[in-house]
Structure formats: structure tokens, C-alpha cells
Amino acid sequence: MPSLETAPFDPRFPNTNQTRYCYSSYLDFYRCQKVKGESYKPCQYFKKVYNSVCPNSWVEKWNDQREDGTFPAKI
């Protein structure tokens, strides 16, 4: 059985609202992959965090926006 883990505490986001933590982790994952390459394992930390913290509907929307070239942030 796989072990289930949640995102660890990040002191940059001390509040209970984790929206910024979610969005920052999503951006950090794709920025890390862009700079270090897709096979760079430490980037997977950010993916684990945003998969744990972000609602699936947000991730799907952001993935669609990235594919369409309409994502509002610079990656």
C-alpha cells in the first residue's frame, strides 16, 4: 500500500488559507522543470505539494491554460 503524505508546513504561508501555497508550488514545479529539466527529481517535491494542497479543478484549469498559452503567470 502506498504511503499517503500531505504537504509539510511552510513558514512563508502560515495562515490556514493555503491558496498562495498552492499557486506558488504549482509555479515552482514548472519553473524548476524548465530550468533543471524534467528528469530532475527535486522538482517533484513541488508537484507533491500542489497535488496535496490544490483542488483538482484548479490544476486542470491551469494545465489547460498552459497548453493554450493563456496561463496568467510567467513560467
UniProtKB/TrEMBL annotation:
The keyword Disulfide bond applies. SUPFAM superfamilies: Cytochrome c oxidase subunit h (SSF47694). InterPro entries: COX6B-like, CX6/COA6-like_sf, Cyt_c_oxidase_su6B. Keywords: Disulfide bond, Mitochondrion. It is found in: Mitochondrion. Pfam families: COX6B (PF02297). It comes from the Eukaryota. PROSITE patterns: CHCH. Gene3D superfamilies: Cytochrome c oxidase, subunit VIb. Its main location: mitochondrion. This is Cytochrome c oxidase subunit 6B isoform X2. It comes from Nicrophorus vespilloides (Boreal carrion beetle). The lineage of its organism: Eukaryota, Metazoa, Ecdysozoa, Arthropoda, Hexapoda.
